[in-house]
Give the backbone structure.
Amino acid sequence: MTARAAIGLAALLALLIAAPALLGGYGLSVLILVLYFAYVGQAWNIMMGFAGQLSLGHALYAGLGGYIAAGLYFHYGIGPWLGIFAAVAVAVAAGSIVGYLGFRFSLAGVYFALLTIAFAEFTRIGFDNWEWTGGSGGLFLKVERGVVDLANLRGGPVMFYYVILALAVGALVLCRLLLESRLGRYWLAIREDAEAAQAVGVPVLWCKMLAIMISAALTAVAGVWNAFYYNNLFPETAFAMGRSIEMTLAPIIGGLGTLFGPFVGAVVLTGLGEIFTAAGDRLDIPGIKQIFYGVALLLIVMYRPAGVWPWLAARLGFAERKP
């Protein structure tokens, strides 16, 4: 990383830390969404961008994480910072099952993606009929206004903003370390040619399993944050296919396999998505946000297939090595 890039990142981080004092309520809520989608995009990027395994059912891990932590808090008063360990453990176990079934029987591409979708849908049906989670009627956490209780994730948007900022920065640092590790180089070999990697001694199955477990763990943490931020969970939204797709958009738009791609993609999609949503409300055009997402993906595939960030980084003099 060049000195100019390091200074730019430090300035950006300082600006993000000061953002709550500079933005109004609406601006802060948009920035919270940007950081959330950047974080979950980074988690999904480990699977697809680093290891080359297409998952379209990542809502499974976010939903499990949110429900486990929220359920423990709702029924037994166990705080989310303890509940998060159970949430991560359950999500990692689910990811291990999905991964083993898929990788052990050599499912790849769309076939593995269909497997991930199926598990998310099976889980949604199960939670729809599980009384402990509220079933289809949903699970609701008590809203406490005017309270700042970080230990129990009870507070206003500013508190949740700093939590998701810390998570996003932590995910960025973790992914940087992973890319520079031996595991990151193994993932590169698997993504480019799994059979050739296997032939030269790369433990392909174990490396793929690590990718899905790490990705599931990070996504479960996002699910916990999301549950306590919105204070409610419904199976039809927590495990929805649409939520899984949302997690994929930021890294695809920003640049698969890059560190900063999910952040850039989240800024583009969330910022412009909010603008188009507001325009749609004024012009009475329903679904304009979804239309924008479709057009954005089409344009990226046609003109910037590697994503926005590699193109932008070349012009800013910011060199980033892909995994």
Notes: The chain is about 75% helix and 0% strand. The mean pLDDT is 91.
